[in-house]
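Teaching note: in complex prediction, the entire set of molecules is handled at once rather than each chain in isolation. The prompt given to students was simply: 'Predict the structure of this complex.' The entities are:
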Amino acid sequence: MENAKPKTTPAAPIRTAEILCVGTELLLGDIVNTNAAFLSRRLAGMGISVYHQAVVGDHPGRLTQALEEAYAGHGRPAAQLVILSGGLGPTYDDLTKETVASFFGRDMMLHAESLARIKSYFGKLGRCMSCNNEKQAMMPQGAVVFPNDYGTAPALAVSDGERTAILLPGPPSELEPLFDRQVRPWLSQFTDGVLISRNIHIMGMGEADVEAKLCDLMVSSTNPTLAPYCKEGEVRLRVTARADSEAQATALCDRLVEAVQSSEVGPFIYGVDVENVESALVQTLTRLGLTIACAESCTGGMLGERITSVPGASAVFAGGCITYTNRMKVEQLGVSQATIDRYTEVSAETAAEMAVGVRRVCHTDLALSTTGYAGPGGGTPEHPVGTVFVGIASDHGVRTLKLSYAAGKTRDYIRRAAASRAFLEAIREVMPDNDSQ
Amino acid sequence: MENAKPKTTPAAPIRTAEILCVGTELLLGDIVNTNAAFLSRRLAGMGISVYHQAVVGDHPGRLTQALEEAYAGHGRPAAQLVILSGGLGPTYDDLTKETVASFFGRDMMLHAESLARIKSYFGKLGRCMSCNNEKQAMMPQGAVVFPNDYGTAPALAVSDGERTAILLPGPPSELEPLFDRQVRPWLSQFTDGVLISRNIHIMGMGEADVEAKLCDLMVSSTNPTLAPYCKEGEVRLRVTARADSEAQATALCDRLVEAVQSSEVGPFIYGVDVENVESALVQTLTRLGLTIACAESCTGGMLGERITSVPGASAVFAGGCITYTNRMKVEQLGVSQATIDRYTEVSAETAAEMAVGVRRVCHTDLALSTTGYAGPGGGTPEHPVGTVFVGIASDHGVRTLKLSYAAGKTRDYIRRAAASRAFLEAIREVMPDNDSQ
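The expected output is the structure of the full assembly:
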């Protein structure tokens, strides 16, 4: 349907959406689809329900089919909004914009402002713009264009009132800030009601145990809902409430969070609404004005990397030593060669001396250490792959913890789970009542 | 269609598949869907084309609809195989197995062997099995069961000859080894032909530039195909060939890889078929018998974490110092206070002294250092957020590199891209001809 003066904004409040990610690299498994998770999380926060996510190739026919299915809803609620990511690049196989334009019966027109921005972007980088970047400045007639400060492809929205499509560039480093700073404010004009979620973080208890202890609460809770999910060595409970106002939704959530906190699961909760356990640690240490250092063997720098991934970590993190070899453990941390000879480098004794050593070297209140067999090689009959010793040193002295992960867990899983557990122990060290929210 | 003695193995060679991931946590964006990427990569390697990936909630109706669409093919080739992940857990909202059973008209029956395995799994962990774990031992009639050594939920395959479904547990730490060690060998009985892929890794050239220089080659190449994709600060080219034999497919790929190597893109290739740049570095240093250490400020341990994520890294990696504070830089690495006072801690001079210092401290052949502003806070007019200095020390002395990332790049992007570039410089340091494949 050709349309001279098309509607360009949604008519009805948007309550349902689908995520449609475009790219052969996704279908080939070359890259992991983080955009679907990011967009779904954001939409949930805006009270927009996502019932379906799909990935299709750079293929106009299949893309059109996916759009038709999304807006029609196949055995699921029809989507009022489809958010597409990818296929806005300069290359010949980037076809998303052109396909959506023809789906909505719009012509493509050169968007002068976008062209100017793309040129200046390349100017800033001191790189010259290859002519096929101009393709990125072509826009469907009547589209709302969101300038991209983080790359060359602008985001855009196309709507005929009933159906709305938002197109975002594929790279997460562009998609995420573009959505948060430009698309979200625009989209929020067309939503109603609010969905509030709170996340309860649990460590030291399996999903089946958590669910067994909370089964009645889960089944009986409809608004808010209570849903468990696993994440490397921890269980999270998501509490989600829908209401007309944020205050109402928050009140609904809070009551259920308190019910969980006072349940048998309570003692295993390390945080509520924390990004992750490293954020909980940085928040806790910042509040208490304490500093921390790490001595890492099997985690090889992951403790430091994860702590410093939290903005503001510099307030609490001094640094640390990655002592992958025994010589480094002795020279850098003052671990005694006799301890290594007698107990080996993977032992509670070595972990303890590593933690004490790095705390002294870095002049911190607290120190963590890790030494273990993350596999695939290594391990002993006494300490097979999956064995990790964690040391925690503070004014109270030093204590150690032996972690054993099931055979078959990957190197990455063992390292991530051991690091998470180390962070939890650091929180417990400074907050014995374990109330870290 | 009720069926007393159902067919349980695929009749025709399987050439098309879809990935169907089940879980409300995916639709809410609580977790990133790494399973779709893993399974797609594996299927591509088996010559099975994936035209569609979808995520649906734990909802029998929508799951059934998604299965019908996949096997029917909506504007895309019909799938002979659907691989489902998730929803096999012990909790009341895990419904995948039951839904697939009724889709294929099969009854659920207790699988005694699985029940025994689940019991012994909990025994090994010294945890007691909650009764709802028994649900995980119920199987559709005629299913092929793949025992799970990595968790409680077995994988299974259901087929009526025409249509085949493979069900895997959601946690990647279970799904990945289960697929590789048990499902893949079974599935490979029902495939034909081979698809071989080679990956060319490029750094220091943008996607648009790469594509401009290789446009003719990309358009003219149909088998093998040549497709670019971006990944944090680098561009990759995937070469994929289909043939009857592995030898034929490999020969097709090799010719195209050589064509790219001898093109203008050649000098920017750091590796072919390497997992990533840290693997390329570990391989290169192992081959040359060289060792490396790292001094990290803004990357906070990421260099060490990524190097040690490569199995066998202990042959080349001694360790390093995470010197997040200036005091640590001075005390641990011997950076002179005068240098910091005069040039600040984010400077080529400081990066150089950090690299030289950690090389001395760790007694290695090579050393890398990083210092910069990863944001969101920090930065100066002269060195805004996105500025990172990398130091490379070796027998040849020390050199530094100033990296500048565009405004708006995230903290994680800046840290990852700077680390990747540091690894590339380390490879170049020991292989001036940059021939690292």
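Point out the following to students. Chain A has three domains: 16-190, 194-272, 277-430. The domain at 16-190 of chain A is CATH 3.40.980.10 (Molybdenum Cofactor Biosythetic Enzyme; Chain A).
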